[in-house]
Specification:
Chain B: Keywords: Membrane, Transmembrane, Transmembrane helix. The complex is a heterodimer. Chain A has 11 helices and no strands. By secondary structure, chain A is mostly helical. In chain B, helix 4 crosses helix 5, helix 8 packs antiparallel against helix 9 and helix 11 runs antiparallel to helix 12.
Chain lengths: 218, 365
C-alpha cells in the first residue's frame, strides 16, 4: 500500500519555475533561429492569444486572422523581447497593437452607431423577461458588444481588459503601455460612456446611472 | 461611500460584462481555429524577409498545423511523473508475480495475512484504475517525446492521432474514444506500462526541422528508452516468452535512422508498408517516410511519398497535410487547381485558409 500512497501523494506536478525555464529555453532557441522552438511556442500560446483577440474584437473571425498576424509580428520582433516580463504578456501587447490597427482600418463611427441602433432595437429589454434567462443574457452581450464598437479604441481596450477579462490593473496597464493611473481614467470613462449609452437605449434607467454616479463620486 | 470598488465594474454594468464575457467564451470555444504555423511563418517572411529565411518557410511548409513537440518538451513532465510511474510499475510487477503464483495451491494463511491479501487486491484494483486514467496520457506523452512509430502501434488506427516528421502527437477528442483507450489500457495493464518513461530525455527520431539548429540533449544509446514489449500490436497478445526477443520493424527502422543509415531505414519502413493488413502501421510508417524521404531526396522525394501515400490512403489521417503540401510544391500555373481540389477533398481542412487565399489570388509563398 505504501507505493499506492506514494502514487496519490500530491506535489509532483511540474512547478511554475520549471515551466518558465522550459519557455526560456524555447525562447533562447527561437531567437537563435530554431523554427521548431518557435513552432512550439506558437502552439502553446495560440489559444490564449486567440481568446484575447476575440475579446478585444468581439469577433472570432477577425480574431482568427489577427492571431496569425500577431505571431508573425512577434516572430520578426522576437529580438526585441527582453525577457523582463512574461512572454504571454508581450504577445498580448502585440495583439493589442494589431487590434488597434484593425480598428483603425475598419472603424466607421456612423456605421458602428447604426449597428448599435439595430442591435438594440432587435434586443427588446422585455420587462417581463426572465432576468436570468438565456435570451436576455444573449441580448445583453450583443448590446454591450455593439456599444463597445462605438467607443474610441483606448476606452474600449481598457474596458475589455479591466471589466471583461478581469485583468489586474498593473498587468492591464503594462499590456496597453500606459500607467495604472491612466488606465483607471480610461476605464472609468469607458464605463461612463457605456452606461450612458445603455440608458439612452433603455437598457438601464437614469436612476441606476445616477445612483452609481453618486456612489462613484462619494 | 461607494458600494463598489471604484476601479471595478459598476453593479449596473456587471450583468452586461458577465454576459458578454460568457458569450465571448462560447464563441471562442465554438470557433477553435486550427493553428497553421506554416501560414504564419510565410506571413512573417512577408513582413521581414531578412528575419525569416526562405528555407525556413519551405521547411515549415511541410510541417502540419499541429507541430511536433520540441526536443526537451515534457522532460519536466516525465520527471514529475517518475515517482508515479516507478511506484505504479512496482505495484504492477508485484501483482504480476502474484498472478504467476496463482496456480500454486495457496497455503493456509492466518487472518492477518489474509487481510494483507485483501489489501493487495484493493491495491491492484486501484492501480489498474489509476493506470486506466493516466495510462493513455502517459503513452501519448511518451510517444510525443520519443516520436517512434512503435510507441503507438497498438493504437495506431485510432482516429485523431497524427504523426509528422518522425514525431507523434495524439489527440483523443471524443469521450468514447478515450474510454476505448482506457479499456485497452486496463485490459493490457501489465505489458503496457511505459516502463522507461522517466528516462526519456530527447526525441529519438531525426527531425529535419531541428537539424543543425536545435541544441538537443543527447544521451548514450544504452540510456535511451527501450520499447516496452507491448508496443508491437500483434505481438502484445502473445505470451511474454514469445514477445521478448527481437525488435519490431519500426524499432529497427528508427535505430537505423538514428544511426544515419537513411536508405536502410527507408527500406525497413517500406517493409512495413508491404506487410499484409498493415493499415494503421503502414500509415504511421508513411508519417516517418515523409520526413525520411525529404532527408534522402529533398522536396521532390517527399512529394513522391505524399503522392504514394494519397494513392494508398486517399482519405487517410495525413491526407489533409499531404494534399496541402503537394499544392504548395505544385507549379504556379497548376496551383489554383490543386488548391481547388484540396478544398473539394477537405472543405474544413486545416489548410483551407491558405487554399482560400490562393484561390483569391493572395497566396502566401
Amino acid at each position: 500500500m505504501g507505493s499506492l500512497l506514494q502514487l496519490l501523494r500530491p506535489g509532483s506536478a511540474p512547478s511554475a519555475s520549471e515551466a518558465e525555464d522550459r519557455e526560456a529555453e524555447l525562447l533562447h532557441r527561437a531567437r537563435g533561429g530554431d523554427i521548431e522552438a518557435w513552432s512550439r511556442l506558437y502552439q502553446e500560446h495560440f489559444d490564449r492569444v486567440f481568446r484575447h483577440l476575440a475579446y478585444l474584437t468581439g469577433d472570432t473571425a477577425a480574431a482568427e486572422d489577427l492571431v496569425q498576424e500577431t505571431f508573425a509580428r512577434a516572430f520578426v520582433g522576437l529580438a526585441q523581447f527582453e525577457g523582463r516580463g512574461a512572454f504571454a504578456g508581450w504577445l498580448r501587447g502585440i495583439a493589442v497593437n494589431i487590434v488597434r490597427k484593425h480598428w483603425r482600418s475598419r472603424y466607421r463611427g456612423d456605421q458602428a452607431m447604426d449597428r448599435l441602433e439595430v442591435v438594440s432595437a432587435q434586443s427588446s429589454v422585455g420587462t417581463d423577461a426572465d432576468p436570468e434567462g438565456a435570451h436576455l443574457r444573449q441580448r445583453r452581450a450583443e448590446v454591450l458588444l455593439a456599444v463597445l464598437d462605438t467607443l474610441p479604441a483606448q476606452l474600449r481596450e481598457a474596458f475589455v481588459l479591466c471589466d471583461l477579462q478581469d485583468m489586474p490593473a498593473p498587468q492591464a496597464a503594462a499590456e496597453l503601455g500606459i500607467s495604472p493611473g491612466n488606465l483607471r481614467v480610461r476605464a472609468t470613462r469607458a464605463r461612463a460612456r457605456i452606461r450612458s449609452e445603455l440608458v439612452r437605449l433603455g437598457w438601464l434607467t437614469e436612476d441606476s446611472a445616477d445612483k452609481e454616479r453618486d456612489h462613484g463620486d462619494a | 461611500m461607494a458600494t463598489h470598488d471604484e476601479d471595478g465594474t459598476p453593479p449596473a454594468l456587471a450583468p452586461f460584462a458577465r454576459d458578454t464575457a460568457e458569450h465571448l467564451d462560447r464563441l471562442v470555444a465554438r470557433a477553435r481555429p486550427a493553428p497553421d504555423f506554416a501560414a504564419m511563418l510565410a506571413r512573417a517572411r512577408e513582413l521581414d524577409p531578412a528575419a525569416v529565411p526562405a528555407d525556413a518557410v519551405a521547411r515549415a511548409g511541410v510541417l502540419p498545423p499541429v507541430v511536433p513537440l520540441a526536443p526537451g518538451h515534457g522532460r519536466g513532465d516525465a520527471g514529475a511523473l517518475a515517482p508515479f510511474t516507478t511506484a505504479l510499475k512496482a505495484e504492477l510487477d508485484g501483482k504480476l508475480a502474484e498472478r504467476r503464483l496463482a496456480s500454486i495451491p495457496p497455503a493456509p494463511v492466518p487472518g492477518r495475512r489474509r487481510l494483507g491479501v485483501v489489501f493487495g487486491v484493493v491495491a491492484a484494483l486501484a492501480a489498474a484504475v489509476l493506470l486506466a486514467v493516466v495510462g493513455p496520457d502517459l503513452v501519448a506523452e511518451r510517444a510525443g517525446e520519443r516520436g517512434t512509430a512503435a510507441a503507438l502501434d497498438g493504437a495506431g488506427g485510432r482516429h485523431g492521432e497524427a504523426r509528422f516528421g518522425g514525431t507523434t502527437e495524439v489527440h483523443t477528442d471524443g469521450a468514447a474514444e478515450r474510454a476505448a483507450d482506457r479499456n485497452d489500457m486496463s485490459q493490457e495493464t501489465v505489458t503496457n506500462v511505459p516502463q522507461d518513461m522517466p528516462k526519456t530525455t530527447r526525441e529519438s527520431a531525426p527531425e529535419d526541422m531541428s537539424r543543425g539548429t536545435s541544441p538537443t540533449v543527447d544521451v548514450p544509446d544504452e540510456t535511451r528508452p527501450r520499447k516496452a514489449l507491448a508496443k508491437d500490436g500483434p505481438r502484445r497478445r502473445k505470451s511474454q516468452e514469445d514477445a521478448a526477443p527481437g525488435l519490431s520493424l519500426e524499432d529497427e527502422a528508427q535505430q537505423l535512422w538514428q544511426k544515419g543509415e537513411l536508405a536502410a531505414a527507408e527500406r525497413k519502413f517500406r517493409e512495413i508498408l508491404a506487410l499484409p493488413g498493415a493499415g494503421a502501421r503502414a500509415e504511421l510508417a508513411y508519417g516517418d517516410l515523409f520526413a525520411l524521404t525529404r532527408q534522402l531526396r529533398g522536396g521532390d522525394g517527399q512529394a513522391a511519398a505524399w503522392r504514394e501515400y494519397l494513392g494508398r490512403f486517399p482519405a487517410g489521417r495525413f491526407a489533409d497535410d499531404a494534399r496541402a503540401g503537394l499544392c504548395r510544391r505544385s507549379p504556379a500555373d497548376a496551383r489554383a487547381a490543386c488548391w481547388q481540389d484540396y478544398l473539394e477533398h477537405h472543405p474544413t481542412g486545416a489548410h483551407r485558409k491558405q487554399a482560400d487565399a490562393a484561390l483569391a489570388g493572395g497566396e502566401t509563398p
